[in-house]
Amino acid sequence: MEFLNIILFELGGKPVLLTDLLSALFGLTTVFLAGRNSKYNFYVGYIYTVLLFFMFWQKNLYANLILQPISLGINIMGQYRWSHPKKDEETDSGDLKVSMLSWPQRGLVVGLVLVLALVWGWLMSMMGTRWFVGYFPANPLPYLDCVVTVLILTAQTLSALKKWDCWIAWLFVNIANLILYLKAGLVFMPIVSSLYLVNGIWSLFTWYKLYRRNS
To answer: What does the pLDDT average to over 156-168?
Structure first.
């Protein structure tokens, strides 16, 4: 996979690698398709997951790296759920309906995100500093890295269940990613995150219309 390290051009004095560009293209494609309620977003998402694994390995962002095999499992679950809805969950065309979390469920999700991010952030802060010293470079931003990781897992799970609330989670992911990438010294990926943010806002309204139409 050394060819993924090819430098294509520089942006703001920072090199943009082939893996950065491919990750951006496949990532934007999969979220665009998801926002348009297309089940084909999962097929593109499989390739996107592999590309992200290599990109985060290069950037020493281990929490996001560990996320990718889990994301693959969530994608598989999502593809099945979207394609095999229960009788009371399907639209007239046989697709899975867009639904919403209840307020107690939203409170539970927020609490789990905070607890998991705190615990995972502490574990990541130990790697390379106190644990496995010399084997892994220290993560420069362990807590922010883990907040983004847990938010992504949450957003992906809600998307796999076709919950409208997933786009709220994706908005927080995109904002946190902007901060993470800027602090990590990246230039290209913040631009991509801004495009994700625009798509997330658009998809928020698109899925709400689908929810109202089928409720």
So the answer is: 95
Of the candidates 118, 166, 149, 127, the one whose C-alpha atom is nearest the C-alpha of residue 56 is: 149
* Structure tokens belonging to residue 69: 């095999």
Q: What's the CA gap between 181 and 3, in Å, rounded?
A: 23
Long-range contacts of 26-33, Cβ-Cβ distance < 8 Å, separation of 24 or more: 26/51, 27/52, 27/192, 27/196, 28/192, 28/195, 28/196, 28/199, 31/170, 31/196, 31/199, 31/200, 31/203, 32/199
Q: Give the separation between CA 61 and CA 51, rounded to whole angstroms.
A: 14
Beta-carbon contacts of 163 under 8 Å, excluding residues fewer than 6 positions away, are 98, 99, 100, 101
DSSP-derived secondary structure letter, 99: B
Structure letter (DSSP) for residue 138: P
For 115-143, the pLDDT digits (tens) are: 998 998 888 777 656 666 666 656 666 77
CA angle 167, 170, 175 (to 5 degrees): 135
pLDDT digits (tens, 9 = 90+) for 175-204: 888 877 787 777 787 888 899 999 999 999
The letter for the amino acid at 130 is R
113 class by beta-carbon count within 10 Å (0-12 exposed, 13-18 middle, 19+ buried): middle
pTM over 0.70? The answer is yes
Residues in the chain: 215
| Owner of token pair 């106190």 | 130
Give dist(CA 107, CA 101) in Å, integer: 10
